[in-house]
């Protein structure tokens, strides 16, 4: 577990740095879910928002476990190297998107829209949200919303070659996204405005790009470890 700690911290930071993207992708949905809470339940709003996000993070963890099984299956073959390269390239693409330099990531997100079209009507039947279990289930469905940041992180987690590690990394990633989306649901304008600032977005994007370069297999990893 100690060896996994740096990767868990990295996954959490990746989720936090992707906060600007989360606001763009899920901020409107989070606001809609908040408004969907009946007036008589407003006193429980914070707990319902926690349940939304817990369901979403559990979906990320489940997806990490499933795709981690695929990563484990190819861990000892040449496909493992290919998976790691694709994961690194997606992370670099994510960084470019966060920094506002290239929006090619939106094409990747389009791949998941077919699945979301089937999930969305089911999610709609859970509104209005009147209980914690209902909010948890709605959040779990929301976790399958097409998102390039999630896809990039999933492939990176799968490239570790272990289903359990992949699930833990996606859990840590989900926890990293939690503060931003929870604050969005509570209308924390200062935090959301801060994450939308160009300087913050560029800084986050550059860090994700560097993380993607680090993920690429090659001699540069040994050089960086030595420095």
From TrEMBL:
Domain Urease accessory protein UreH-like transmembrane, chain residue ranges per copy: 11-214
Name of the protein: Urease accessory protein UreH-like transmembrane domain-containing protein
Taxonomic lineage: Bacteria, Pseudomonadati, Pseudomonadota, Gammaproteobacteria, Pseudomonadales
Keyword Glycoprotein: no
One Pfam family here: DsbD_2
Residues annotated as transmembrane: 12-37, 57-75, 81-103, 135-156, 168-188, 200-217
Keyword annotations of the record: Membrane, Transmembrane, Transmembrane helix
InterPro entries per record: UreH-like_TM_dom (IPR039447)
Organism from which the protein derives: Pseudomonas tohonis
